[in-house]
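worker-03 picked up job from queue 'complexes'. Input manifest follows; two sequence lines, order preserved.
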Amino acid sequence: AQKVTQAQTEISVVEKEDVTLDCVYETRDTTYYLFWYKQPPSGELVFLIRRNSFDEQNEISGRYSWNFQKSTSSFNFTITASQVVDSAVYFCALSEAGNQGGKLIFGQGTELSVKP
Amino acid sequence: DSGVTQTPKHLITATGQRVTLRCSPRSGDLSVYWYQQSLDQGLQFLIQYYNGEERAKGNILERFSAQQFPDLHSELNLSSLELGDSALYFCASTPQGNSYNEQFFGPGTRLTVL
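worker-03 finished. Artifact:
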C-alpha cells in the first residue's frame, strides 16, 4: 500500500539554525515520484521539488537541500540557516507511475516554526 | 502565483445545503485535481479530470460530484452538507495529468458548514 509518513508533527527552531524535515514513504511501484510542498500561513500550497525514483542524486537549491535514499525509503528536506519566512507547514508527497492520473498521496505535514 | 484560480475564497453555509466550488487551471493544462484538507484527515485526493473526462477517483463521498467543462475549468459540487465537510478544498492542475508532473495548486476555497 502507498503511504507517506512525516513523523515530526511540529518543529521549533531559532533563526539561523539548520533543520531537517523527515519523510518516509511506502510503495510497491518501482517507478514513482516524490514531492515537497510548502504551505505558509496564507494557506496556499507551493511546489518546492520533484524527484523520480531513478534519480538518487541529492539536490541543493539555495538554503534548501534534499536527500533521497531508496535504501531507507526516505526523502528528507534540510533548510540551512533557517529564517522566519521559512515558518510554514511542509508536506511530502508521493505519486506512483502505476496509478493512472498521478494523484498525490500526502504525509500529515510538519509544522515548522522559526523564531527570531 | 501558481496560475490556478479558485472561487470563492471563502464560503459559509448551513447543513443540508449545496455549494459549487470553481477552479480554472493554468493556461495549457488539461488535467485538474481536487483535494480536501481537513484537520482530521489531512490532505486527501478527491477526483481527477483530464480534458473533460474523469480519470481517477479517490475518497470522494457520493454527495460530492465534479465535472470539467470544454473550456477546461472544473466545478466541485458538494450537496447535503454536513458539519464534517468543513475543510479547505484545493484544486491543482498539470499539463497531461501524469504522475511525473508537479501539480500546481490554487489558493483554495475554505468551506465552513454551520
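worker-03 released lock.
The interface with chain A takes residues 2, 31, 33, 35, 42-45, 48, 50, 55-56, 58, 88, 90, 92, 94, 97-108, 110 of chain B (CB under 8 Å).
Chain B has a mean pLDDT of 95.
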